[in-house]
Amino acid sequence: MSASLPDTTRRSRRAHLLAQNIGLELAVFLLAACVLAYCGVFYAQQQRLPGGFEVTSTVNNTMPLVLAGMAQTLVVLTRGIDLSVGGIIDLTNATAAITLGGSAGSMVLWSVIVLLIGAACGLVNGLLVGIGRLQPILVTLATLSIYQGVAIRVLPQPGGQVPDVYTAVLANTTGPWSLVYVVLLAGGWTMFRRTRLGVSVYAIGNDPPAAQANGIAARRTLILAYVLSGVLSAAAGLFLAASATAGDATTGNGFTLTSIVAVVLGGVSLFGGRGSAVGAIMGAFVINMIVNILFFAHIDPLYQAFYEGLFLVVAVLAANGIGRLVRR
Amino acid sequence: MTSPPSPGAVRVEGAGLSKSFGGVHALDNASFAASAGEVHALVGENGAGKSTMIKLLGGRLQPDSGIIRLAGRDVRLSGPEHAHRLGAWTVFQELMLFPGMTVAENLMLGREPRGPLGVISHARMGVAAEKLLAGLGIFHIDPLALIEDISLAQRQIVEIVRALSHAPDILFLDEPTSSLVEREVSWLFGQIRALRDRGACVVFTSHRWNEVQNIADRITVFRNGRDVGTFTELDESEAVTLMTGQRLDTLFPARPPAPVAAPMLRVQGLSGPRVQSVDFDLRPGEILGVGGLAGQGHRELFLVLFGAERAAAGRIAVDGRPIRIRSPREAKRRSNGLAFVPEDRKTEGLLLDMSVRDNLTLSILDRVSRAGVLRRRQERRVAEEMVRRLAVRTAGIGSKVGALSGGNQQKVLLGRWLLPDPRVLLLYDVTRGVDVATKHEIYQLMIRLAGEGRAILFYSSDAQELAELCHRVLVMREGRIAAELVAPDITAEQIVAAAIHERIAA
Question: Where do the H-state alpha helices sit in B34-87?
Fold first, then answer.
């Protein structure tokens, strides 16, 4: 009885996925380009291609940024930004350095406690943003300083001694075993995206009034996103402690900004609601490849930041341009 | 006319509801009730309170005072999901969809099918959404497409489908047809009738009178935030009288005699993007209309004249003095004296979060400041005077423009461009989406401005308006002026005919 609206041609599921994940695809492309460039400069210097040692150290060096990038992604998806990522890493890294040691049981226990410290830091951020209705940038700028200050209290001088067995588990130098963590994290994210919490995070980032109208618990989602972000930052602190075999209360400072760079390179929109932490993982690797390339190209370390900045601008401009072309 | 006994039990009722925004009453002690098994239309001008009524009943807003009864109970709705639990679903005018998510995700939100691991299965979700759409006779929306990638009409349908899929007892639709084409409207009406026939209550608003007549069992008219009556039979002219408090035939003020002075603006051989060698003269005191089908270069003509688009060729002279306009800044310079009022006040003109005063004085910042510092007192004086002159209904010049009704927003935009005291006004479809009473005020203002010796170039998508107000009308087709019609012999039919045909019988 009621009229029906006729069919039109339809794209396949795969075509949709390709078109809708352009940010992620650009990140893959960028990473591939960086790996090629790295192999090029490496070959020019060493007359051989990078081998197992290089792969292992790259993966181990990148793991903390992978985690920090994922932490940042969670908050950015909710239309926020987490400047306290670096502070949480400082605090958790310092705590890990003075507590890890002794029996295996004690190390597991303290690792869990360190993750909970990260969760607590995230909870503070989340409460201030979600309940206090303060701007995320303001809240996390303040808590960044606070967490940094507490970290210095915990570990005034770099030091502590992380047992070899801990390093062997988190940052094994005999092979690229940490790739397992990368795969687990990427898989975990894919699952997370398919949970109610995951959908809610995207929904509140996409359109806050619509989220409210659809009965999504916006406040709870926001707080949980910050808590999870804090846990991921704490994990970054643990990985840093493992690969350095010691702690430093200032080691995380650079991660606030680099985690944002990883997010941007990974195609996550700073306006919220779009993008994937898998992209941020790629972004983290891209950043480390750039550092490697600059190293092998014998760029004066003093100018490294300059070239990194230049690269970031060029990469984002290019990604925007390509993205616009593809969407058209 | 009185309302007959209701066809069924009252399903939804708002009694004595009031709601104000920034001191402006959107609803003022208004009441409304709809029953099971009926389709009930809310009609009224923009700002009459229809949308506010639907937002209150749908749980989107909370009333300042008054009682809401849903499904026989007095309720204080905490939000839309509260209304959902009581069987009431709403398709709001501003769609509540997630642009970065797929159609399927939007449709299945909160009831996503799960896969073996307990996580949402996108594959099953796509199938479920496809089935849902197909079950309602929709085959032209791809469930895997992102909302932001489908058309506005399709988004509207997705939102309607989402509401329908919950088998609502009460369905509110706020302007559901505004972006739909005829075939989609008839689809929607089929769904509405099916809902009614199974005893549900459907409440909708529309500006299209034939739709209201076509589907509504009863009609409630709103005016100025109040309900003015509920009817089973109502014809259009009665409805307009009720909605505006004014008779339709007095809408257009009398046209002043055509001026004879020398041209103030002379345009010769003007070409640009989509504009093909346009010539015309515009005299002081003249209202020169521009009409034609959409997309024939009117918009570009206005933009070129105002310097927002670059002219490729041609000459423009003001008071016999040739001028070059390369930017809006140059156009509005006092020696040129041009002002452009665009149609879409929200995206092209007003800063909705800023005050009426700031919006008004934006065009004359140099005049209300000294050495770069604003002189607040002078700014206030100028703004207050303009608010009085245009009878802008606002709580004060400090109110946010976004809190005003559409018609009053349009007046603020007009006021902004009157402040620099322009000699040539370029008015682009300024009455579109404005209620009848404000239209009437804008017409009177135009005639007054022309009487002051200003020249007005007036594009309108409403041929009736052009025919009634203008001294002459230029009809554009494919970037050229295809016909020039001269008052008093202009009719809307002639304008439309000239817009379509190569030649018209004069």
Answer: 50-57, 80-85
